[in-house]
C-alpha cells in the first residue's frame, strides 16, 4: 500500500510524531513531497499509484480521475470543499476526510487579533509610525459593553465568544442548531442572522463553507451593519459577497474588516481588498502554529489508518 503527500512542506513533515510514523509504516510506504508540482502531469506522476493521499492544498480534477487505486484523500484542514471536487471523489468511490477541531483556540486567537487590530487601528498606526507620522487621530474603539456577533458557534466560535466576554462584550450568535442549553453554556444570546448584523458592533464568521452557506453574507446584510462596525472572516471567503464588502469599506460605510481568507489563495494581484487601508489582511495563517499543524497532521494520519482498518472517521462526502 502506498500513501502520498504530493504537496507538503518540510516544516509540516518534521512535525510528524514517531507514533504517526509507525502507523503509516504498518500500512506500507509513505512518499512525501515538500513542494507543489508545477504541472498536472507532474502532479499525476506523484499520486497515480497512491492508495491514500495526505493533501495539503488542492487536488486537480483531471489528476483525481487518473488515480485508479486511490481510496481516500485525507485533507489537512477542516474544510476540503474548496480544494477537492467532492462530487468527483464520491462518484469514484473515494472517501474525503477532514481534521475537525485541530486549531480551535489558535484560530479563535487570530480572530481576536484581527478584531483588536481593526478596532485599535494597529496596522494603520504601525504603517504611519514607520513612515515617521506620529498622529493619534480619532478615538479608537472600546470593547466594554459592545456587542459581538458570532456567526457559527462551533469550536472556534465558542472560543471567540469566551474571549470576547473577557473583554466585557455582550455576545449574540447565529447557528444552525440553537438551543437554550447551548446559550446558557456559552453565555450567548441566539438571534436571527439579520438581527445579529443590525445590532452587532463587530461580526466574526465561523461557519463551514457548504452549498448552503455559499455567499450567505449578502450585500443586504453588510449594508444593514452599523457604519462604525467591523467584520472579521477567518472561516472561508466563499461565505461573503466580497466585492460588496470591499466597496463598502472603500466608501467608508463600514469601519474596517479583518480578513484571513480570500477568494483566490495565494491572493491575486486584482483582489478587491488590496490597497484598502481599513482592511487588515493576513495570508490564511490563523492555524499556522506548530501545535495546530502537529494536531492536523496527527488527525490526518489517524483518518488514513482508521479508514484502512475498517473504521472510517471524519468522512465529509458520500463515496
CATH architecture of the largest domain: 3-Layer(aba) Sandwich
Relevant CATH superfamily of the largest domain: NAD(P)-binding Rossmann-like Domain
The overall pLDDT, averaged over residues, is 96
> Main sheet: which strands, in order across?
8-7-6-9-10-11-12
By CATH, the topology of the largest domain is: Rossmann fold
Helix and strand element order? EHHEHEHEHEHHEHEHEHEHEHEEH
Low-confidence stretches: none
Helix content, binned percent: 25-40%
In terms of DSSP E residues, the strand content is 5-15%
Count of structural domains:
2
Alpha-carbon distance between the two ends: 20 Å
The total beta strand count reads 12
Structural class: alpha/beta
What is the general shape? globular
**SS field, number of helical segments:** 13
CATH class of the largest domain: Alpha Beta
Q: Which sheet architecture does the biggest sheet show?
A: 7 strands, parallel
Tell me the radius of gyration. 21 Å
What does this protein look like?
The strands form two sheets. This protein has a seven-stranded parallel β-sheet, sandwiched between helices. The protein has a five-stranded parallel β-sheet with strand order 2-1-3-4-5. The protein is globular and about 60 Å long. The chain is α/β, with parallel strands linked by helices and 319 residues long. The longest helix has 19 residues, at 290-308. α11 (219-223) links the parallel β9 (202-205) and β10. It has helices spanning 10-13, 18-27, 40-47, 61-64, 86-91, 104-119, 122-130, 155-166, 180-186, 193-199, 219-223, 242-250, 290-308, and strands spanning 2-5, 29-32, 52-55, 72-75, 95-97, 147-151, 170-174, 189-190, 202-205, 230-233, 256-259, 279-281. It contains 13 helices and twelve strands. The protein folds into two domains: 2-102 and 289-308, NAD(P)-binding Rossmann-like Domain (Rossmann fold), CATH 3.40.50; 104-281, Rossmann fold (3-Layer(aba) Sandwich).
Amino acid at each position: 500500500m502506498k500513501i502520498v503527500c504530493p504537496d507538503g512542506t518540510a516544516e509540516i513533515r518534521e512535525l510528524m510524531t514517531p507514533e504517526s510514523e509507525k502507523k503509516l509504516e504498518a500500512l506500507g510506504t509513505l512518499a512525501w513531497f515538500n513542494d507543489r508540482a508545477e504541472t498536472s502531469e507532474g502532479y499525476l506522476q506523484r499520486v497515480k499509484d497512491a492508495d491514500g493521499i495526505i493533501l495539503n492544498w488542492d487536488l486537480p480534477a483531471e489528476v483525481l480521475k487518473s488515480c485508479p487505486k486511490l481510496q481516500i484523500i485525507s485533507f489537512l484542514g477542516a474544510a476540503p470543499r474548496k480544494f477537492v471536487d467532492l462530487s468527483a471523489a464520491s462518484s469514484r468511490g473515494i472517501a474525503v476526510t477532514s481534521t475537525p477541531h485541530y486549531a480551535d483556540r489558535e484560530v479563535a486567537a487570530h480572530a481576536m487579533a484581527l478584531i483588536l487590530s481593526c478596532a485599535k487601528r494597529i496596522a494603520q498606526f504601525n504603517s504611519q509610525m514607520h513612515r515617521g507620522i506620529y498622529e493619534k487621530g480619532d478615538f479608537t474603539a472600546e470593547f466594554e459593553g459592545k456587542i459581538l456577533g458570532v456567526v457559527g458557534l462551533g469550536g472556534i466560535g465558542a472560543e471567540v465568544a469566551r474571549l470576547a466576554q473577557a473583554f466585557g462584550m455582550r455576545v449574540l450568535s447565529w447557528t444552525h442548531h440553537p438551543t437554550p442549553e447551548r446559550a446558557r453554556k456559552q453565555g450567548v444570546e441566539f438571534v436571527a442572522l439579520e438581527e445579529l448584523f443590525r445590532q452587532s458592533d463587530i461580526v466574526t464568521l465561523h461557519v463551514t463553507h457548504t452549498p448552503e452557506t455559499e455567499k450567505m453574507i449578502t450585500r443586504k446584510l453588510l449594508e444593514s451593519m452599523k457604519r462604525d462596525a467591523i467584520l472579521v472572516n477567518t472561516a472561508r471567503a466563499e461565505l461573503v459577497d466580497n466585492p460588496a464588502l470591499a466597496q463598502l469599506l472603500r466608501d467608508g460605510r463600514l469601519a474596517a474588516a479583518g480578513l484571513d481568507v480570500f477568494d483566490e489563495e495565494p491572493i491575486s494581484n486584482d483582489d478587491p481588498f488590496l490597497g484598502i487601508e481599513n482592511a487588515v489582511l493576513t495570508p490564511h495563517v490563523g492555524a499556522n502554529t506548530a501545535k495546530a499543524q502537529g494536531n492536523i497532521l496527527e488527525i490526518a494520519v489517524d483518518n488514513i489508518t482508521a479508514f484502512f482498518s475498517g473504521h472510517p472517521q471524519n468522512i465529509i462526502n458520500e463515496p
